[in-house]
């Protein structure tokens, strides 16, 4: 396979609510890859290291959510806009059903789509993020540091947040800091982040949660075969968050990676890819929970 670069894989899909940008590589069963949130995040940065492996097996589609500086912007809360963007994206490409890998926020969005439209997702893989804290206090260290950067976007605050994402601090290189800093401080992207993680936004979300059923209370409605992957040392979404989805999603499986923070697909790349590929390529009817 030819080298997969940013430019060679970048695509655009024009929709009635703006341009959705994405990266595409490989052929076969469509595999939608949904990125997380946080300063300077993009789908490409989340999954560029994994794309060559999965593109050998799947038609990989790495969607860039509106509100993060790559696809056209949105006036909505980015997480509220994301499930609809997934629907527009699948409709625009004429895809009735896909497998999905969702990192953190991307996993939550994928779960929301799987709850609302169970026919659209065949198999679901999440990376941290899904569920709710049962034992660890909230908000977590990573979320607190994310809010601090959003309120006071300094380079030092960005670096502190990045260190909370990983178990091994050697992963936070100067090049990583630079590429994250450039995007995270773009005015439109920063304004979008404040709608998600500013202190006022976090307080409003907590108040609203008192009157509405949270998404995690609906996880029992998911019909896609589901694999939850988690870093044992995740300081953004602590491991105890996995208990609710593990127990309530029918047939869900959980794989925990040691010496690993929030970015399992990066920090335990080879092991994570092996586990996820085995799950996605398992023949129908193999193992418990297949429907």
Automatic annotation (TrEMBL):
Gene3D superfamilies found in the cross-reference section: alpha/beta hydrolase
UniProt keyword list: Hydrolase
Entry annotated with the keyword Heme: no
Xref: Pfam families: Abhydrolase_1 (PF00561)
Domain AB hydrolase-1: 30-267
SUPFAM superfamilies: alpha/beta-Hydrolases
InterPro entries (UniProt xref): AB_hydrolase_1, AB_hydrolase_fold, AB_hydrolase_sf
Top-level taxon of origin: Bacteria
Entry's Gene Ontology molecular function annotations: hydrolase activity
Full protein name: Alpha/beta fold hydrolase
Organism: Actinoallomurus oryzae
């Amino acid at each position: 396979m030819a080298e997969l670069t940013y430019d060679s894989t970048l695509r655009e899909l024009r929709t009635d609510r703006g341009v959705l940008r994405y990266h595409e590589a490989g052929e076969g069963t469509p595999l939608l890859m949904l990125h997380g949130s946080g300063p300077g995040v993009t789908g490409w940065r989340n999954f560029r290291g994994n794309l060559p492996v999965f593109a050998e097996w799947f038609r990989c589609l790495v969607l860039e959510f509106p509100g993060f500086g790559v696809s056209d912007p949105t006036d909505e809360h980015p997480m509220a806009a994301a499930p609809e963007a997934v629907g527009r994206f699948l409709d625009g490409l004429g895809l009735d059903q896909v497998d999905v890998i969702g990192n953190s926020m991307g996993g939550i969005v994928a779960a929301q789509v799987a709850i609302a439209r169970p026919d659209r997702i065949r198999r679901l893989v999440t990376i941290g993020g899904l569920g709710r804290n049962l034992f660890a206090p909230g908000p977590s260290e990573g979320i607190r540091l994310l809010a601090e950067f959003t309120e006071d976007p300094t380079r030092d605050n960005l670096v502190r947040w990045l260190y909370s994402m990983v178990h091994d601090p050697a992963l936070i290189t100067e090049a990583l800091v630079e590429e994250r800093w450039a995007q995270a401080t773009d005015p439109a992207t920063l304004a979008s982040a404040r709608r998600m993680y500013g202190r006022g936004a976090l307080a409003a979300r907590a108040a609203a949660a008192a009157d509405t059923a949270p998404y995690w209370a609906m996880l029992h409605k998911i019909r896609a075969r589901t694999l939850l992957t988690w870093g044992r040392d995740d300081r953004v979404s602590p491991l105890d968050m996995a208990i609710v989805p593990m127990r309530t999603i029918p047939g869900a499986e959980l794989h925990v990676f040691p010496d690993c923070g929030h970015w399992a697909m990066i920090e335990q790349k080879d092991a994570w890819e092996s586990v996820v590929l085995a799950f996605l390529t398992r023949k129908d009817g193999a193992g418990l929970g297949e429907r």
